[in-house]
Specification:
It is a single chain. The protein is built from ten helices and no strands. With about 300 residues, it is mainly alpha-helical. The longest helix has about 55 residues. Pfam families: BBH37. It comes from Borrelia crocidurae DOU. Keywords: Coiled coil, Plasmid, Signal.
Length: about 300
């Protein structure tokens, strides 16, 4: 009987570990029946029949005690479904392509192959050729525009300084107009010559636009190169993944769109580069003209003050 009770306890422990209460109840019933059947088949049948009532009471007592212990354990331990105790693999952050190997693409293989890739590469080369023909870079254009902006701001300060000086000098001479009529007339003509404030404002606005467009052209050019590289890389990845069970194929339409986007970015960059490089040259000429007028005004004012 001790061995049977030990066996029963082991089975109950296994059921507790599996956290399946229904299975535990079923197991108790089955063990009880087997326990009684085994005793009935004992060789000493007469002795067992004589003490059957006593043995049954002992068995009922043992099973009742075990059932009470199981109930107490159930009250202490919170039973959880197995899928809550052990989280699934997907909750650990693993991707579906767990066995997918990383594909390394050599830079030497990043060569345009498809029609769209070749068109994008041609547009990028057109930008490079223009920069090469004028022996310049985007950074140089941006630097020139910044320099022109600084010179224009200084020119603006000089302009308003000379305008104020002419006004003050004319107001001083007007107090004795008859004696200084000649100088007053010269100052009036000088004021008319200095009516270039609108031109100066236009120049300042133009320089800001030129600077912004050069920065934009540089951005589109860099983006065109990056996007084309991405399109070629994804195409090569598709080729490398062919024949593998676990593989993630890049959409062919996406690759075409990337190449088209690269070409358009390069074309936008080229258009901005050619258009605003000419505007930069024109702005420099306009700046020199305004500077010359201000220098003449300064010289004329100095001669009148003598």
């Amino acid at each position: 009987m001790n061995k049977s009770v030990l066996f029963l306890c082991m089975l109950i422990l296994l059921c507790l570990l599996s956290c399946d209460v229904n299975a535990l109840n079923n197991l108790l019933g089955e063990v009880r029946e087997k326990f009684l059947d085994k005793n009935k088949n004992n060789k000493d049948l007469f002795h067992i029949q004589k003490n059957q009532k006593e043995i049954g009471e002992q068995q009922d007592g043992v099973i009742s005690v075990l059932e009470e212990e199981v109930i107490e354990i159930q009250q202490v331990v919170q039973v959880k479904p197995i899928n809550e105790v052990i989280p699934p693999v997907f909750q650990q952050g693993y991707s579906y392509y767990l066995q997918e190997e990383a594909i390394v693409i050599d830079s030497e293989r990043l060569v345009p192959y498809t029609k769209e890739e070749k068109e994008a590469n041609k547009a990028i080369e057109n930008v490079k050729n223009v920069l090469k023909s004028i022996d310049s870079e985007f950074s140089q254009f941006i630097e020139d525009a910044l320099k022109l902006k600084s010179e224009s701001e200084k020119l603006e300060a000089d302009f308003y300084a000379i305008v104020k000086k002419v006004q003050d000098e004319k107001a001083l001479l007007m107090s004795s107009y008859k004696e200084n009529i000649g100088k007053v007339r010269k100052l009036t003509r000088l004021q008319n010559q200095l009516k270039i404030n609108l031109d100066l404002e236009t120049l300042m606005s133009q320089v800001e636009t030129i600077l912004s467009e050069f920065r934009s052209a540089e951005y589109f050019f860099e983006k065109a190169q990056k996007t084309l590289k991405e399109a070629i890389t994804k195409r090569l990845e598709n080729e490398a993944f062919k024949g593998r069970f676990f593989r993630r194929v890049n959409n062919s339409n996406l690759l075409v769109q990337l190449s088209i986007e690269s070409r358009r970015n390069a074309e936008n960059s080229l258009e901005q580069l050619t258009s605003y490089s000419l505007e930069l040259a024109e702005a420099k000429i306009k700046k020199d003209e305004i500077k010359n007028l201000i220098e003449i005004a300064k010289s004329s004012l100095s001669s009148l003050e003598r």
